[in-house]
Amino acid sequence: MAWTALVAALFPQGHAITEQDDLLSGVAQVDGGTVAVIGTTRHASIGVELALAQAQAVLRTVREAPGRPIVLLVDTQGQRLRHRDEMLGIQRYMAHLGKCLELARQRGHRIVALVYDQALSGGFVSSGLMADACYALPDATIRVMALPAMARITKMPEAVLAELAHSNPVFAPGPENYLRMGGLEEIWRGDLATALAKALAEAQPADHRAALGQARGGRACAQPVLTAVMEAGRAAQNERARTVRPRRY
Q1: More confident position, 205 or 249
Q2: InterPro entries of this UniProt entry (predicted)?
């Protein structure tokens, strides 16, 4: 879906969103209130400039409109694969974007993301997956790594990975598999404006994706491991509190 048609469906009450160098930014009206809109288009390849531009838009919202909800529109082919970006430390720029979104969350901004076209690798991790809740359209393309690239990294035959993808959502692309793993809150069909208003009203900063993945049968081990680590940490902290003696001066 073209971003112009998307925002018309999402924001029937009006918007002032512009495109510049694959960056979408502006404001829109949702359910009688104003939201900030930040996103990418044309299967954007996230280089240092685009990562910084998104981060600047987030910080501008935090500074100029405290508490204003943020809607992220995701269409990216991932990080830009150029020697220049790698030498400049593209991972640091993308991490900076993620930190800016976390700062906004800590300052009380609700953050909702929508994958409306492509969402690949680091470009998705540092944007859509940093939201309080991430949603997708049915025809969206979502994957962290293509099977041929995964085969090269894992040294496993591509045919084996393709077979695994039939039964294990971790290996398979597509919004339905990310829904099963808890990475997506929901796949939107029908009235997008109503779905967005509902998502913003229900957005919570707590991360419950591991529990969702377990409940939906897509990630069996993430939540049990998370729970075990937290319980071990609490036990260790309690043990230190019992054994540490106050200093005598």
Answers
A1: 205
A2: ClpP/crotonase-like_dom_sf, Malonate_gamma
Radius of gyration, CA atoms only, the chain: 20
Q: What are phi and psi of 190, to 5 degrees?
A: 90, -130
Q: Of 239, 26, 9, whose CA–CA distance to 116 is shortest?
A: 9
pLDDT band at residue 247 using 50, 70 and 90 as cut-offs: low
- DSSP bridge pairs for 141: 118
Helices (H), the chain: 3-10, 48-64, 83-88, 90-106, 121-125, 147-154, 158-167, 175-180, 192-202, 209-215, 222-243
Is the CATH number of domain 3-205 3.90.226.10?
A: yes
Domain residue ranges in the chain: 3-205
Report the pLDDT value the prediction gives residue 211, as an integer from 0 to 100: 94
**What is the rounded CA–CA span in Å between residue 133 and residue 114?**
9
Average pLDDT on 76-80 reads 90
Mean pLDDT of 130-141: 96
Q: What count of other Cβ atoms lies within 10 Å of the Cβ of residue 161?
A: 17
pLDDT in tens, 95-133: 999 999 999 999 999 999 999 999 988 889 999 999 999
Q: 138 and 175 in contact (C-beta within 8 Å)?
A: yes
Q: Which of 33, 36, 30 is nearest to 17 (CA)?
A: 36
Q: Which residues contact 36 (CB under 8 A, 6 or more apart)?
A: 26, 27, 57, 61, 65, 68, 69, 70, 71
Question: Six-digit token pair at 28?
Answer: 């829109």
